[in-house]
Structure formats: structure tokens, C-alpha cells
């Protein structure tokens, strides 16, 4: 049996009880080494199979092999099990008889937003700026659409060592639809050592140097500052 | 102190450890009666303040009043604390000195998607079809934009007793951009008694009778069926 476990942003507190139970019960933890390292303190004796970045298919095949041997496997994903996680690839590679359960978790859009205030109160869109698996023109089309729809937007993977300039380009596209003074924010290393947040304008975001451990929230036309926090009103107030 | 707590979809297993700790430590639970009822079994003795639907501002004011008296308050929201929850209204009504912490939770898009397969693997949009707080033309604009952007879409509040026809209209708008045979699914009463799911096409969804306890996932152009589950590939596979 394989449980694809969303382990939340980092520390145990951000994990659901179902996720904790799945990790506790697992015979072996499988995942990207960076995420499995987050669990080392809690499960020092638990067998683990790790692969580096881009080792996604190997991770899934190994999880399937172990599961078919009768092992109970926790395939671990940061945040949620699906959102830029491993659940879909595992289902693609699995057969009809493989026993697979998806255990959802708190994705970075939600944990970042909670640190920044309450920007994600209503309709929102989630877009990754990584073009490793999605062609950049598709990403641009989605940024344009999210801008047109006045969605609050959570941007994942705003940059990496080899991928710079995407955030600047994304901001330029969003500025076709919203003002440069739109309230934005980012959160880095959420629930981990070095947790940092910043609230800034869309104009300032354009030249910000971020990394792949950062999640960006771009406000919509209604988002404003409220005592130093981002706030998108829901319109409840009479 | 007020903690705005996303209690997840229903049962305790879907709740984060931070959420559980906030509920455990609270002097009083405040929230919509339907959600506070979900917690009655776990906290039978805990004082509670409940209001009916649309009592959102009253709930927040009561939470603020109790907190200013020195009580530790858990303001409880289904799913996440922000997404169609109470966090933003509370921040709007609070003063600078009120001590407020947002505790994120697993929103229905993620818990519904996990039951249906792995449809939310990449970029997605979340849209509520309730026009109680958002004018219908804004909702239509967002549906169009999400269709144009080929986002997988999670629809919240597809219908209520007084609000019928919105889902049919939404499907018609989405059909301007995607085929009637697009793979969709819905999940109802997630993590609660009467949990039900169904996978169907966009054409079939159009005439489905749903309620406000149902979350709908509309696949994008890449979403397909895989052994009876919804699957949106991420493009990892060589």
C-alpha cells in the first residue's frame, strides 16, 4: 500500500493527523531528499529511499516496487500530495491493482497567506513559474488569464539558481491588468529554519531576488494593507 | 488572543496538529453552528458561541469582545481559515492591538481532489459560485478567465436551496473553452457522514443537482480518467 502524504510546509504542527498516522505506520519513507530530511528528527530509525531533484519517476517506481513486495510506503511531498507533488505521476505509473491513497496537506499558498494576513479570502489562482514541466508560453497564458480574472494569485517556484527573470516577466504581465502599487507578499522557508516574510508592492516585487523555497501572493484589485498585513475583504461588511 | 482555525473538511484526521492544539487550548469556540457541531464530540464541555449562516460579522465581534476580556478564542472555519472563511473579516473588524493568529487548514479543493484521484497536480483556480458576496458578473468573468487559462478549476458552493442554475450557467461558460467530455468530479460531505463522490463529464455536470456541501473539480484539457480516477499529468514522464 502506498500513501502519498502531503507533509505540510515543514514542522509537525502544520501536518494533519492523517498525515502523521501515515508516516508513523509506514515501513519506509520515499521522497525527495530535501523533504525526507525534514522528517529525520521525527523518524530517525525509519528506512528511507531518497532521490534528488528530477528523480520523480524513480521515486514513484521505487514506491510501487516496495508496495508490491508488501511494504507500507509513505511517498512524501512538501505541502499537499497533489499540488506540484507526486500523486499524479504515481497514478500514471501505477497499475489497476496497486493500492494507493492520497493524504492531502496544507499547500504553500495557504501557509504563506496565513503568515501574510488574509489575502486568500476568496477566489484565487495558483501558478508555478517553473518551466521544467510546463512550457513558458502556457505559464504566460495563465498569468494573463489570472490577471484578467482579477484573481488573487499564489506563485510557486518564483525562481531557482538556473531560472532567473521569470518573476520579473510575470510581474510585467500582471501589470497589464493591475496597478504597480497592488499589495503583494512573499513567505520563505515556511515552518522551517529561516522563516521570513515580506509585504511589498507589485512594482517592488518585479526586482525581488527570491528562490524556490519562496511562495509569492499577488493581491487583486481589492487587496489592501491592514495594520501591516495583507487583507482581501470578502464583502461581508455592511 | 484569537486563533482563526481552519478545522479541515470534517473529521479530526484532516486537521493539522496546530489546529488541534488551538482548539484544545481555547477557552471558547466561536463559529457557524454547523461547523461547531462537527467539534461537539471532541469538545463536549468547551464553551461555545455559535451564530447561524450570514452571522459572520456577529461572530467576529463576539470573538473580539471575548479576546479583549482575556479569553483565548478559537474562531473556527471549515477547511482553511482564509478561503471563504472568517480570517479576512476578522482582520477588517479588529484593531491594531488585537492579538490574532491565522492557523491554516486543508481547504475543500485539496480534500475533494484527493478523493477523486490527482486532478490538482499543477496550476489551478478556485472559484465560488455563491453570489451572496461577489456579484454574479464578477463570477462569470472569473469562470471565463479560468477557462481561457486552461486551469483545473475547483468550484465551491455550486448550489444552495435558493441558488439553483448557477452550476448550469458555469458549465455553459466553461464549455466555451473546453470540451463537453472534459473529465470532472465532485465530492460531498468530505470527511463527514454521507461522504460521496462522483466522476462525470462536463456535459453531465451541467444538469447535476448538488448542494453547498459539495465541491466540484473541473479538469483541464490534459485531465483524463485513469482506472476510474481523475488524473491531470504533470508532464514528468519522459
Describe the overall structure:
2 copies of one chain form a homodimer. With about 240 residues, chain A is an alpha/beta fold. Chain A contains 8 helices and 13 strands. In chain A, the strands form 3 sheets. Chain A has a 5-stranded parallel β-sheet, sandwiched between helices. In chain A, strands 7-8-11-9-10 form a 5-stranded mixed β-sheet. In chain A, β9 and β10 form a beta hairpin. The longest helix of chain A is centred in the first third of the chain and has 13 residues, at about 55-70.
Oligomeric grouping of the chains: homodimer
Question: How much of the residues of chain A is beta strand, in percent?
Answer: 15-25%
Mean pLDDT of chain A: 95
- Overall number of strands of chain A: 13
User: Which chain pair has the greatest contact?
Assistant: A-B, 75 and 75 residues
Task: Decide which structural class fits the backbone of chain A.
Answer: alpha/beta
The number of distinct helices of chain A, counting runs of at least 4 residues, comes to 8
* Gap between N and C termini of chain A: 52 Å
Tertiary shape of chain A: elongated
Order of helices and strands of chain A: EHEHEHEHEHEEHEHEEHEEE
Q: What share of residues of chain A is helical?
A: 25-40%
Radius of gyration of chain A: 19 Å
Q: What is the makeup of the main sheet of chain A?
A: 5 strands, parallel
Please state how the strands of the largest beta sheet of chain A are arranged side by side.
Answer: 3-2-4-1-5
Low-pLDDT residue intervals, each spanning 5 or more residues of chain A: none
Amino acid at each position: 500500500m502506498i500513501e502519498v502524504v502531503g507533509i505540510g510546509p515543514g514542522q509537525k504542527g502544520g501536518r494533519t493527523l492523517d498525515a502523521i498516522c501515515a508516516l508513523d505506520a509506514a515501513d519506509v519513507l520515499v521522497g525527495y531528499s530535501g523533504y525526507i530530511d525534514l522528517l529525520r528528527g521525527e523518524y530517525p530509525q525509519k528506512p528511507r529511499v531518497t532521490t534528488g531533484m528530477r528523480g520523480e519517476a524513480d521515486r514513484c517506481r521505487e514506491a510501487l516496487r516496495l508496495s508490491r513486495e508488501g511494504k507500507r510506503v509513505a511517498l512524501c511531498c512538501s505541502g499537499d500530495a497533489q499540488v506540484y507533488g507526486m500523486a499524479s505521476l504515481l497514478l500514471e505509473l501505477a497499475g489497476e491493482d496497486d493500492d494507493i491513497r492520497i493524504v492531502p496537506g496544507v499547500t504553500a499558498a495557504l501557509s504563506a497567506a496565513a503568515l501574510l494576513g488574509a489575502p486568500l479570502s476568496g477566489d484565487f489562482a495558483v501558478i508555478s513559474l517553473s518551466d521544467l514541466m510546463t512550457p513558458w508560453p502556457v505559464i504566460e497564458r495563465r498569468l494573463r488569464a489570472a490577471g484578467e480574472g482579477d484573481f488573487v494569485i499564489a506563485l510557486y517556484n518564483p525562481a531557482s539558481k538556473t531560472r532567473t527573470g521569470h518573476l520579473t516577466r510575470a510581474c510585467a504581465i500582471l501589470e497589464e491588468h493591475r496597478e504597480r502599487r497592488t499589495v503583494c507578499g512573499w513567505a520563505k522557508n515556511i515552518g522551517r529554519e529561516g522563516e521570513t516574510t515580506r509585504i511589498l508592492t507589485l512594482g517592488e516585487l518585479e526586482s525581488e531576488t527570491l528562490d524556490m523555497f519562496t511562495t509569492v501572493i499577488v493581491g487583486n484589485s481589492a487587496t489592501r494593507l491592514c495594520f501591516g498585513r495583507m487583507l482581501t475583504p470578502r464583502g461581508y461588511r455592511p
